[in-house]
Amino acid sequence: MMHLGTARTAIYCWAVARHFGGEFLLRIEDTDRERSTPEATQVILDAMKWLNLDYDNKEVVYQMNRLPRYKEVVDQLLAKGLAYKCYATKEELDEMREAQKARGEKPRYDGRWRPENCVGKPIPEGVTPVIRFRNPDDGVVTWEDGVYGEITVANSELDDLVIMRGDGIPTYNFAVVVDDWDMQISHVIRGADHINNTPRQINLYNAIGAPLPTFAHLPLIHGEDGQKLSKRNGTVSVLQYNEEGYLPEALFNYLARLGWGHKDDEKFTREQLAEWFELSDCSRSPARFSMKKLDWLNHEYIKGYDDKKLAELVKPRIEKLGGDLSLVKDLPGVMALLKSREPTLQALAKAAMLFCHNNPVDSSSLPAQLKDKEDASFEAMAAFVRKAPSIEWKKESIYGLMKEIMDEQGVKVLHLAIPLRVLVTGAEKTPSIDATLELYGQERVLTRLNEGMEKWAAQRAGN
After folding, report:
1. What is the pLDDT of residues 434-463, one digit of tens each?
2. Which domain holds residue 403?
3. pLDDT for 407-428, tens place per residue?
4. Is the domain of 76 the same as that of 171?
5. Annotated binding site for ATP, which residues?
6. Which enzyme type, at the first EC level (predicted)?
7. Is 231 a catalytic residue?
């Protein structure tokens, strides 16, 4: 799946490409056959589309379509003595590592099938060899990282990595080097967990005669508890945030700000990110993912949305919740009323259900809510029902009628607001009652109130 860390990396790659007027290319590294399923690949493509990460290559590069090219380069390395066949079995390698651990050594391949170490050694029957790269024995690998600055690793710390498995499928470290060469990649931007791969890959670039790209490694994203992200605190598929009602531009903005900044700007456009982005402005410390901050930013975007566009986004969510949109004459108006209160599209849809279904009219809770003012409240409501058919059905007129009745009968606003909420909507809490009644529509409100007042009167008579 494409989780938050992967998405942020893609956003930064996009920003660098757009900043320099270059190309943002998409490559699916699918040589791990167990993890690289068509479904997993589709999640990546869908997430890229949802985040509007517009890549420039017309055809996505799939590594499994490039196997002949990898074999070609491997054969060249074998011919130059820069790679060799290794016949060590899994059991042998496990035994080797256990012995190294017992001696207090760092587990690493010991070069037993390097040509100079196996002169006259018989090739075991029934063992399909892997191809290993012959890493330089001496010297160091140094690169200027776009985020961390200069990094140096001694070659003595690196062993001979496998570059092609026995089934002819290349390993990640080898395939990406060949791909970067062929795709003319200028910048490799990825998580800091790849730093250990970089010196190995640099030696491979040098071995095949490819130019070195600029490397930049991004600190990982931690949860609010300072620990690595988990399913509990953020490492779910990016598309899960779509399901939960986050806007793609809000998540894009939030992830871009998570480990990089431009002055005190919290909210910015994609175009501004492309203009402002510099790798040197990225933090070297892990960023902390905050749902509270994401909710705040998402809410800022929602509040700025056009009401009609917001209604179109929320409509299918309401339908999925079972809401009856035929009851709502002005869904954009509902959005205008609710968007200052709700931080996500899903929360908006749930709040909009107040208008999208008819709760049973139930007056049983009114006596307890109104306490010793039930009689006054009932009379005020009766006056409201008598006069409401003759007013213009706008919130200003509705509140004007309420104010008129309050002044005439000496009651407080709650003596009207509480029964209006309960009898019309079936809910004890709503947005401002005048705006709510306007959006319910005059006919619907009066129908509900007449039914409710009859039940309330019968209830009072029974008591």
Report:
1. 999 999 999 999 999 999 999 999 999 886
2. 366-462
3. 999 999 999 999 999 999 999 8
4. yes
5. 231
6. ligase
7. yes
